[in-house]
Amino acid sequence: MRSVESNLAVIRDKITQSCKKVGRDPRDIKIIAVTKYSTIERTKEAMEAGITHLGENRDQEFLNKYEALGNEPTWHFIGTLQSRKVKNIIDKVDYIHSLDRLSLAKEINKRANKSINCFVQVNVSGEESKHGLSPEDTIPFIESLQQYSNIRVIGLMTMAPHTKDEMILRSCFKKLRQLQKDIQLLSLNNAPCRELSMGMSNDYEIAIEEGATYIRIGTALVGE
């Protein structure tokens, strides 16, 4: 298995190339290492290579890693979050990427003792297998969150279809970017919405060209 350090060097090079194409600064892109299938040792290797953002998508796996690594990394919860599991993770995570319903917002607000940075998950592709709000429902949902003082919508998150068709991927990311712009025009205090969490191992270069600020990389970085 290749070292995380050598994988990261390749990824950083591709980030630089993608940014160059569209006149962006590579420093504006944050890499989240998705460590859901990684051992504690491999996760530590990622941190030693310079990764500071770690992403988990199951509460128990997250808690195991947190127990081993504490709050040294910046923690992102990127998977579907059940309302009843919020209390287990809320005082340990820094970002939640999967806010997509009021019942979850209510629970986060109730359990949190500080403002939580949240990404609203949008199902841009409309695939039934994917979680998230439809693009049409996203703005009304974000407006309804104004009653919850512990929720800060810092951006939007989506998962593109698993395809090699660049036009489909680009269209998906463009739609999320446009939705972000529409939300920013509303100047909501609870939703600065400056960030875009989009792009994974197979499509992060295209996501960056279309405006991603956080990319969630698993396989390409830490391996299968």
The neighbouring-strand order within the major sheet is 7-6-5-4-3-2-1-8
Q: What structural category characterises the helix and strand content?
A: alpha/beta
Gyration radius, rounded = 17 Å
Strand percentage = 15-25%
- Residue share in helices? 40-55%
**Low-confidence runs:** none
Q: Which secondary structure elements does this structure contain, and how are they paired or packed?
A:
Layout: H1 4-22, E1 30-34, H2 40-48, E2 53-56, H3 59-69, E3 74-77, H4 86-89, E4 95-99, H5 102-111, E5 116-121, H6 135-144, E6 151-157, H7 166-184, E7 195-197, H8 204-209, E8 214-217, H9 219-222
Parallel strand pairs: 1-2, 1-8, 2-3, 3-4, 4-5, 5-6, 6-7
Describe the structure.
With 224 residues, the protein is an alpha/beta fold. Helices cover 41% and strands 17% of the residues. It contains 9 helices and 8 strands. It has helices spanning 4-22, 40-48, 59-69, 86-89, 102-111, 135-144, 166-184, 204-209, 219-222, and strands at 30-34, 53-56, 74-77, 95-99, 116-121, 151-157, 195-197, 214-217. Strands 7-6-5-4-3-2-1-8 form an 8-stranded parallel beta sheet. The model has no long low-confidence stretch (mean pLDDT 96).
